Amino acid sequence: DIVMTQSPDSLAVSLGERATINCKSSQSLLYSSNNENYLAWYQQKSGQPPKLLIYRASTREPGVPDRFSGSGSGTDFTLTISSLQAEDVAVYYCQQHYFTPYTFGQGTKLEIK
Amino acid sequence: QVQVVESGGGVVQPGKSLRLSCAASGFTFIRFSMHWVRQAPGKGLEWVAAISYDGSTKHYADSVKGRFTFSRDNSKSTVYLQMNSLRPEDTAVYYCARGDAITGYLDYWGQGTLVTVSS
Fold first, then answer.
1. Alpha carbon B31 to chain centroid distance?
2. pLDDT tens-digit profile of A69-83?
3. CA–CA separation, A12 vs B61, rounded Å?
4. How far is CA A101 from the centre of its chain?
């Protein structure tokens, strides 16, 4: 199984500042036939189901604010929130959607400093 | 609009069975895979199972393989998760989610249903 490891486990950032969450996979998520990386990011606010933010490493789901961006390739990926808003407080998960089982990272808790 | 609604959760004794249902609406059901993801209290997300658009292909996490069975009824736009030989470690909120037509990212999630396995 592919192991997904996020860092840090928790993060406190000031409003308006940049937040960066990293995700590392134990195997490459790059599908050579189309040069796409099969990595997704989800946001889960307290008491709510997860919400898809990013898929294929960098494609933003419709309706997701453009302050959220995804980058990376192969085994190393990053979710960046360019200017943190109060409503971004949540736990963020990466997930590889290349091979079953479609494993998740352990989550990163994002708070306001 | 797209909706997925889970039902069937509850309290069950270890070793017993439970069947979860997930009713979908607002999209062409037969074109999408469906998934179950669970979240134990205070813990992270664990992908549980997936079923292809036509039900011909199923995948399971090792933790549930041989005990859980995923099925779908495309005439009812509904999927089912039959959970047998339940263990205390199966206690979690179970989310049903729509999967991408090609790969396994999950674009619509239900609110979840809580399964508690306890004597």
1. 18
2. 999 999 999 999 999
3. 33
4. 18
**Owner of token pair 């609110």:** B111
Q: If you measure CA to CA, which chain B residue comes closest to A102?
A: B47
Chain B interface includes A92 (CB < 8 A): no
Quick one: closest CA in A to B44, which residue? A106
CA distance B18 to B90: 11
**pLDDT tens for residues B40-77?**
999 999 999 999 999 999 999 999 999 999 999 999 99
User: Closest Cα of chain A to B73: distance in Å?
Assistant: 23
Burial level of A73, CB count in 10 A (0-12/13-18/19+)?
Answer: middle
**Rg from Cα positions in chain B:** 13
